Description:
Blueprint: H1 35-43, H2 54-72, E1 79-80, H3 82-93, H4 101-119, E2 132-133, H5 134-141, H6 146-149
Antiparallel strand pairs: 1-2
Helix pairs in contact: 2-5, 3-4
Amino acid sequence: xxxxxxxxxxxxxxxxxxxxxxxxxxxxxxxxxxxxxxxxxxxxxxxxxxxxxxxxxxxxxxxxxxxxxxxxxxxxxxxxxxxxxxxxxxxxxxxxxxxxxxxxxxxxxxxxxxxxxxxxxxxxxxxxxxxxxxxxxxxxxxxxxxxxxxxxxxxxxxxxxxxx
Length: 164
């Protein structure tokens, strides 16, 4: 069976019907995922099909951003808090020996302040920014070409002899 004849492996699958929970292990992240979950995750990274109309491209973009949003929203409450954002930034930068944890926190704090200014505008001194909602997240990513930044180029399996 070719990948394009299987609904779960097609080049442009419908948005996944289920969310994959990558935050279920004792460390806060999944210790392992099964193959079906792997395929679901990879489906978010499919390149844009050149035959898609503008509405389909926008739907694909929104699904990629929703996946990315859920990577930050660790408690799945629909809001990325400063603490959640700090955790992701610290994890991403933890492999860099030149960036200390306090520097990573400062980077996260600055980015969250920038997000607040984009989403809320000028805040009062006593006003607290509760966190980034998905609508805020869409505003932040507006004008950024995520379609070319968040994809994986897959090989055309029909042109490759499969090993048996």
